[in-house]
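Query structure, 162 tokens:
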């Protein structure tokens, strides 16, 4: 299974591609999509989705995992991120891909077993699970990889339950 994990943001959207089989994970690629804050909102969202679609074409994932909004200081900062998540969801559906959102609590629990794990603990688990020498940088990319690993762990658990 190849999964595209996404840590959505308007200024920076992290992405990571992981392949998973059995209990093994393999890193395929990761990065961050940056947008120009001087551009209109719809142009920024379009540029994010365009790059996500390019990643879908290049890596042919079967599933997309998106970290959901969990905290915001005010509604005006949450709405643009929600729009990014919605646009990525539409792109996934346009490519007939399954996608799911996970809260940070779900991602932390899936990677460490501890819902209140610290950011550095999640990043270290990403490093260990992907057999990397260093933690992926920037943080948004590591968060996206964690979302992808979380999706796979949830999928395996659901298969076992059935």
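Result returned for the query:
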């Amino acid at each position: 299974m190849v999964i595209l994990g996404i840590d959505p943001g308007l200024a920076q959207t992290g992405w990571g591609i992981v392949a998973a089989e059995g209990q093994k994970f393999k890193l395929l690629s990761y990065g961050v999509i940056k947008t120009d804050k001087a551009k209109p909102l719809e142009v920024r969202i379009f540029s994010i989705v365009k790059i996500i679609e390019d990643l879908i074409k290049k890596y042919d994932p079967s599933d997309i995992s998106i970290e959901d909004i969990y905290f915001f200081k005010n509604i005006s900062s949450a709405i643009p991120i929600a729009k990014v998540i919605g646009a990525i969801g539409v792109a996934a559906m346009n490519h007939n891909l399954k996608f799911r959102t996970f809260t940070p609590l779900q991602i932390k629990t899936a990677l460490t077993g501890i819902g209140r794990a610290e950011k550095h603990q999640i990043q270290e688990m990403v490093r260990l699970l992907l057999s990397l020498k260093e933690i992926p940088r920037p943080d948004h990319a590591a968060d996206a990889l964690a979302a992808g690993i979380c999706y796979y762990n949830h999928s395996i658990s659901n298969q076992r339950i059935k």
